[in-house]
Amino acid sequence: MKKTIFTILAIAALSFANAQNSVQYDKESGIEQIEQQHQSAWKSIDGIEGFRIQIAAASGVNSKNTVQRAYEEFRSRFPEIPAYVTYAEPYFRLRVGNFRTRLEATATLEKIKGNYPGAYIIKDEIKFK
Question: What is the pLDDT of residue 25?
């Protein structure tokens, strides 16, 4: 008798589990179009607000060469950290990293501070994956 009840309960449990193996979504008309617009809008964005570490800034004669040498030196010491040379009149700047939070930037700053004691964290538009 116990075996029969157990068998019936086991069959009922298995049939209930197999009955819920697919999910269907009822979307309102136009939702797929909005999803596509959303995806294309995100693809057009080049960066987001984040943080970088500024290593060097120079203006005047040979400033571009000075910052370029600093860039090459940094890349040889820390090849795993992305580096960017930018120009905003009148300065050429060397900024490194793509950090979403100040905490991430601080960890990297501590790592490079021995080689670049004047480095500091700044807000910047960063590239993201």
Answer: 74
